[in-house]
Amino acid sequence: MEHPILSKLQSPLELHEMSAAELDQTAAEICDVMCELLSERSAHFASNLGVVELCLALHSVFDFLQDRLIWDTGHQIYPHKLITGRYQQFKSIRTKKGLMGYPNPSESDYDLFMTGHAGASVSTVQGLHSGDALTGNAERKAVAVIGDGAFPSGIVYEAMNNANGNLLVVLNDNEMSICPRVGGVASYLDRLRNSIYPSLKAGVQKVLGRVPVVGDPAERFLAQMKEAVKAGFHGGMLFAEMGFQYLGPIDGHDIGLMRKYLKMAKEIHEPVLLHVVTQKGHGFKPAEEDPRTFHAPPVFERVEGKAVFQQKGAGGSGLLNYTNHARDAILEQMAKHERVTCMTAAMCQGNKLEPVRDLYPDRFFDVGICEGHAVAFAGGQCKAGIRPVVAIYSTFLQRSYDHIFQEVCLQDLPVTFMLDRAGLAGPDGPTHHGVFDLGYLRVFPNISIMAPADEHDLKAMLDFSLTHDSATAIRYPKGASPELDREPKPVEFGRAEVLSTGKDGTILALGAMVEPSLRAAAKLQDAGLEVGVVNARFVKPLDEHVIGEVLRNSPFVVTVEEAALIGGFGSAVLEFAAERRLNTAHVCRLGIPDIFVEHGERGELLSDLGLDDEGVYRACKDMAQDTANMETV
Predict the structure, then answer these.
(1) Ramachandran region of residue 216, left (φ > 0), alpha (ψ -120 to 50) or beta?
(2) Fewer Cβ within 10 Å of end Cβ, the chain: N or C?
C-alpha cells in the first residue's frame, strides 16, 4: 500500500486543515505502516494501533510545539513519530542507530521526555505547566496521555492530588496494560465505561432539573438525590473530588467526536480528565482478538487479513531463555512448597508466568503497575510466614527502591527478588536496560545478590534463596541461557565456582558473562596464555577466599559484568581489596561505563562495550602485555 498522505506530511499542523475523510485515510496508512514494520522485526504493535485515531485527534486540535504533550510509558509512540517528521526513518525503529521505540528528545522537538516507565506523565505535565506559568506562558495546554493499565500507579494519584491549572489528562482506556488490568481502579473504570450514562445523560439532567429544592424533609431528600445522581453521572466522585472536570467516556476511534471534546477541553483552563475508550490492535483483526500476543508479536506477514508468523530457522541456538528457566524453577518450588508464592507487577506475560498463574491462582498475585506495592505486600506476606518470590524486571524494580529498604531489608525479611532483563534489554533501549541493580541493591544490609551463569545455577539459586533467612536477589538477562560444559557445583552461601585456573591470569566473571569469558579463555589458550575463569555467582557476599587468592596470586585479574561499573561487581572486588590492603594495580574491570546505553540488539551492544568474547580476549591480552612490560622494567 502506498502512503500518499504520510509520505507528504511535513508537519502535524497540516492535520488541522484535513477533512474527516483525510484523517481516516491517514489512520489507515498508519495501520498499514505498522503492519509493514512487523513483517521485518518485532515491535510494540497492539498498543500503537489502539491510539492511532487518538494521536491524530490530539495533533489536529493542538500545536504541540506550543502546547505540551507527554505519552505515558511511551511504547505507544509510533503514530506520533509517523506524523512528526519521522515517516522516512520509520523502518529503522528499534535498530542500532535508528529511531528509538520510545519518545526521544534528541529525535524531535515533539518528544519532551524519554518515557519508558509508567505513571509519571501527570506529574511531568504538571511540572511543565507550572514552569510555563512562571515564565509567562500559562496559556499553554499541558496534555498527558495515560493508559488505564498505568493509571493505578501511586504517582498518578500523588500528581492528581496536587493538580491545578491548564492541564488535560487523557485516560486511554483499553481494558488492558500488557495483560488484563487488575484491582479496584480497573473495576471503577469498567463501571464508568459500561454505565448507561452516555445515552441517558441528557434525559436524566432534564428530569433532575424539574426537582424542586425547598425546605421540608422530603424535598431536602429530593435535593440530595439530585446532587448525588449528578455526581454519579459526572464521572463519579473520584475524579471530581480530586479537582478534575470529567468528560466522557467517548469512543477513542471516532476522530470527529474526539476533536469536539478536545476543543471543549482546550477552552477549560483548569484540570480536565477526558476518558476515551479504545481497543488495542484496532484496525487489524488478529490483534483486536488477541492483544496480548500482539503486544510485541514475532515477525509476521499479512495474508488475507490474517497474521502468518515466520517460522524460526534451523540456524537458531535452540536454547531456552533465562526467563523460561526462571519460570520453570518457580513452578517447581511452588509444587514442592505450599508457602511459596509468586507476584509480579503487570508483567505476567513478559516474565512468562502464565503457567504459574493458571496452576496456582491462589498463590499468584499480579498487582498491576504498582511495583512499590508489590514489594511492601511481599514484606507483609513474609512476616506472616509465607516465602514470596517477587518477579519484576530489573529496571522496573527501581520504582520500589524505598520499599526494598524499609519493608524488606530493614525488617530482615527473606523475600526473594527475581530480576529479569538484568543487563542490556536490547531494542527497548536505555529506559529498559537493567544495568543499575547491583549498585542500588548492594548498599542495603540484609540482602544477598546472585547472578546465574546458566540454567543449573538459576534453579539452584532459587532453591537456596527459599531456605535462606534474609532477602536475596537473583539477576539474569533477557537472552538465551547457555549450556556450560561442566559438572556444576552446589550453590553455597557466598561461594564462587572455580571453572579453571591459569598461571598467566584470571577472569572473574559474573552471571551471563561466564560463557563469553570461557570462550575468551579458549582463544587465549590458542594464543599461548593460560587464563583461569571463575564463576563468581555471588556479588554480595563475595567469596573472599577465592577472590583473595586470585588477587594475591594472578599476574592479572579481569572482572566482567553486564552491569554498571559504578557500584557493581568490579567495584565490590576493589572494595574488598582495599579492606584487605591488597594490590589492585593488576585489576581491570569490564562492564557498563558511566553512560546510558542506546538501543540495539543485545549482541551488538555487548560487542560495542567490549563485553563479548572478543572484548574479554582483547582486555586479557592487553593486561598480559602490561604485566610483561612491568616485569621488564
Answers:
(1) beta
(2) C
Pick the closest to residue 619 from 462, 505, 538 (CA basis).
505
Buried (b) or exposed (e) across 289-328, using 16+ Cβ within 10 A? eebbbbbbbeebeeeeeebeeeeeeeeeeeeebbbebbbb
Amino acid in position 284: F
Grid cell locating 193 = 465505561
Q: Which residues contact 531 (CB under 8 A, 6 or more apart)?
A: 502, 504, 505, 506, 507, 520, 521, 524, 525, 620
From 415, 408, 389, 392, select the one nearest 334 (Cα to Cα).
Answer: 389
In the predicted model, is pLDDT for residue 318 greater than 70? Answer: no
Task: Report how far Cα 138 is from the mean position of its chain's Cα atoms.
Answer: 33
DSSP code for 405: I
3-state secondary structure of 400: helix
Other CB atoms within a 10 A radius of the CB of residue 598 amount to 16
Cα–Cα dist 420/323, whole Å: 7
Strands 272-277 and 167-173: parallel
Instruction: Identify which of 55, 98, 102, 100 has the alpha carbon closest to the alpha carbon of residue 79.
Output: 55
Query: pLDDT category, 184, cuts 50, 70, 90?
Result: low
* Catalytic member of 280, 327, 363, 537: 280
CA distance 400 to 351: 18
Q: Taking the CA of residue 481 as centre, how many other CA atoms within 13 Å lie in the half-sphere pointing to its CB?
A: 21
Cα–Cα distance, 391 to 347 (Å, whole number): 8
**What whole-number distance in Å separates Cα of residue 477 and Cα of residue 360?**
26
Residue 241 one-letter amino acid: E
**349 pLDDT higher than 60:** yes
Residue for cell digits 516474565? 351
DSSP notation for 250-308: EETT-HHHHHHHHHHHHT--S-EEEEEE--TTTTSHHHHH-TTTTSSPPPEEEETTEEE
Q: Tell me, yes or no, if the pTM score tops 0.90.
A: no
The catalytic position among 399, 459, 475, 602 is 399
State mean pLDDT over 622-630. Answer: 86
DSSP annotation of 423 reads B
Tell me if residue 521 falls in helix, strand or coil.
helix
Residue 12 amino acid letter:
P
pLDDT of residue 230: 46
**Three cell numbers written together for 139:** 496559556
Give dist(CA 21, CA 19) in Å, integer.
5
What domains, with CATH codes, occur in the chain? 12-289 (3.40.50.970), 322-475 (3.40.50.970), 497-632 (3.40.50.920)
Sheet holding 471-475, edge to edge: 364-366, 340-344, 387-393, 416-420, 471-475, 447-450, 538-540
Residue 118 identity: A
Residues facing residue 366 across a β-bridge? 344
pLDDT confidence band for 222 (50 / 70 / 90): very low
Maximal C-alpha separation, the chain: 106
510-542 pLDDT tens trace: 999 999 999 999 999 999 999 999 999 999 999
The whole-angstrom distance between residue 210's C-alpha and the CA centroid of its chain comes to 52
Tell me the per-residue pLDDT of 269-308, one tens digit each, with 9 for 90 and over.
Answer: 999 999 999 999 999 999 998 988 888 888 988 888 888 9
C-alpha cell at 104: 526521544
What do you get for the CA distance between the two ends of the chain, in Å? 70
Q: Count CB-CB contacts under 10 A for residue 502.
A: 18
Q: How confident is the model at residue 175 (pLDDT cuts 50, 70, 90)?
A: confident
Residue 133 and residue 140 in contact, taking contact as beta carbons nearer than 8 Å:
no
610 touches 619 (CB < 8 A) = yes
The dihedral formed by the CA atoms of 114, 116, 117 and 121, expressed in degrees to the nearest 10: 50
